Amino acid sequence: MRKYKFSENIRINYKDKFAILASEESRSWIKVSKECLDILKKFLELEYNHDEIIDSFEQEQDKQYFGMLLDKLLEIKVLKDKGDLNNNRMMSLDWFVTKRCNLTCSHCCVDALDSVRQDLLDTEDMLKIVDKIADIGLESITITGGEPLIRKDIWEIISYLRSKFNGKLGIMTNSLLINKDNIKHLKKFFDDISISIDGVDEESCSIIRGNNVYSRVIEKIQYLKSEGVENISVSAILPNNPIITDEFEKLNKRLGTKPMIRYFSYSGRAAKNHNTILKNMNQYLKKRNMGESDIINWARYIPYNKKEVLPGNCGACIENITVDVDGTLYPCNSLVSSKYGLGNLLEIADLKEYLIGLNVNRNKGYKNLRKLKNCSNEHCNSCNVKAFCWSCPAECEDLLQNKELFMKRCEQVRNKLTDVVWGE
Predict the structure, then answer these.
(1) What string of H, E and C letters represents the secondary structure of 284-330?
(2) Domains and CATH numbers, the chain
(3) Which of 38, 93, 296, 309 is the most buried (most CB within 10 A)?
(4) Tell me, what is one Gene Ontology molecular-function annotation carried by this entry (predicted)?
(5) What are the C-alpha distances in Å from 77 to residues 9, 72, 73, 89, 267?
(6) Are 231 and 192 within 8 A, CB to CB?
């Protein structure tokens, strides 16, 4: 007979006599009475099976209600069968193959090192990592850094990876090291190329990436297109203005590339350079007769009706995973911190089994991830809309480093979200 347990990927919020149960996996939620939730928790604690739960009620209407409630909670993946193992299927993996870079961008969230440093892992260890990641059923792998093309052995590594992995393979690059000698490898091995530009002209690009970068990146994109490379995305952190956003869209249309506007991270060099970047962006906007603004527009978090309210859907350790330059596993490429380390890949015999076995009792990094997803910090603990506030836990982690920015965002989002979620 079926017994149940709460899914790991749920978030619970309380207000007055009610509770909200939100599923990260299904992105669905339900409001129930706190009394009803307490009864359910007691049944699960006692390990009652389905029939024992229903038979615990005397009134037929209570039996029917709780039966329908159990069905709904199973449907939206708040509950699952007690015997179910972690059914996470890693679909994508980001691999930081180096921390070295030929640029020193002011916003670099990985705080990339200069190009003359030595990589932590040699070719032999990198090939060992390939052996471990290639057979866990991934659909896509993204090679990133630093600047991946700075490694002298990069094509030996990628060639070996391609011999073992038939899924989608992408690379994130600043493009400046692309040339006639490696273009054939890029075309042969990669399904898509993501290039960072961080601007719509030389001046805006220089705020993040330095002087005389924009035109060189444009030239590299045009070179790739002339060589028949079609699947190119161009990413940017931009001054927060709709005109700039429109210009970026038009730039990509002219280039025949896909635009990707990135979130401003507050980790790495971005944390210490935030004020300078903001100042320079606003000087740029002012020079172009545009109004000054914050780097991020929090209004995108504010829904206007219940249909727009969705629980966070972070795929970290559910669908995606990250390997750092030393072989350490992390939940995602935005949570590369010792706090969230899941173990070193070079020390793991069977990666697939290891990932299936991840749980809060065995792995400190995974436990910290769950706490982060549940907003278990001093600012959010008592919040009754925290299940919906952060679609990306890494963003919460970022802003926790800057209390002023954190509280500013909270003030703009919390009240409106409360009205929509808990209102009649």
Answers:
(1) HHHHCCCCCCCCCCHHHHCCCCHHHCCCCCCCECCCEEEECCCCEEE
(2) 4-81 (3.90.930), 92-296 (3.20.20.70), 320-422 (no CATH)
(3) 93
(4) metal ion binding
(5) 9, 8, 6, 16, 33
(6) yes
